[in-house]
Amino acid sequence: MGFVFAALGLNGITRGHVPVPPRKRAQKLHIAGSTTMGPLLQEIAAKYHLAHPGIAVEVELGGSSRGLEDVRSGHAHIAMLSRALAPAERDLYGIPIARDGVGVVVHANNPLRELSVEALQAIFTGRLRDWRAAEGGPGSVYALGGLHEGASSALFARFLRQPLEAFSLNAAVESNIERLAVVASCENAIAYVSVGTAERAISQGVPVRLLLWPACQPVPQISATAATRSAAS
């Protein structure tokens, strides 16, 4: 009881001389969008929070289109896009932060090392469903891709010179990491994924392999962009 009274007395003596700063409310930064950019932004967010512990950073995945919708609606402060801003999206301010590519992965036990563009077209449009037709050993092809609204899906379809509506997949999985996990667990699987995410997984021992691109064919490029509402809007 004596300690409590002493503290109260001290507070009374120093009141007005040593002002106590008001407690600041924790701030929150909400980032949403591309699953391809998710791992990078999560690492950036963790380091940013260490330097600014008063600001919580939340990274929510859901695809590039979802990120744009969330920024425009005010649900998110920053959108992650696996592409550059389109001309119709100039109401937003985009900052390119990285470059990645779209690659094709198979299980590490698959004997294939590369596939032609024509073979990839046949696989992802459902016209080739047996690995023996592509010299990949026996078994049915299990083709995986991303969601139609994902930027990497649009980029890969453009590279194959096929409309997205022509794709015939065994499964559409939003996350690159989940697609890699399926390929790692299924020797007959094939999927298009972020090159950076695939290389990281391979370095960690995940049993998948990136196929070589055909000669003279550049890797489809992903422009990683952070977008927010411009000051003008």
Q: Secondary structure elements and their pairing?
A:
Elements: H1 2-14, E1 27-33, H2 38-51, E2 55-61, H3 64-73, E3 78-81, E4 92-107, H4 117-124, E5 142-145, H5 151-159, E6 171-172, H6 176-185, E7 189-194, H7 195-203, E8 208-210, E9 221-229
Parallel strand pairs: 1-2, 1-3, 5-6, 5-7
Antiparallel strand pairs: 3-9, 4-7, 4-8, 4-9
Q: Can you offer a commentary on this structure?
A:
- The chain is an alpha/beta fold and 233 residues long.
- The protein has 2 domains: 27-98 and 224-229, D-Maltodextrin-Binding Protein, domain 2; 101-222, D-Maltodextrin-Binding Protein, domain 2 (3-Layer(aba) Sandwich), CATH 3.40.190.
- It is built from 7 helices and 9 strands.
- Strands 1, 2, 3, 4, 5, 6, 7, 8 and 9 form a 9-stranded mixed β-sheet that branches.
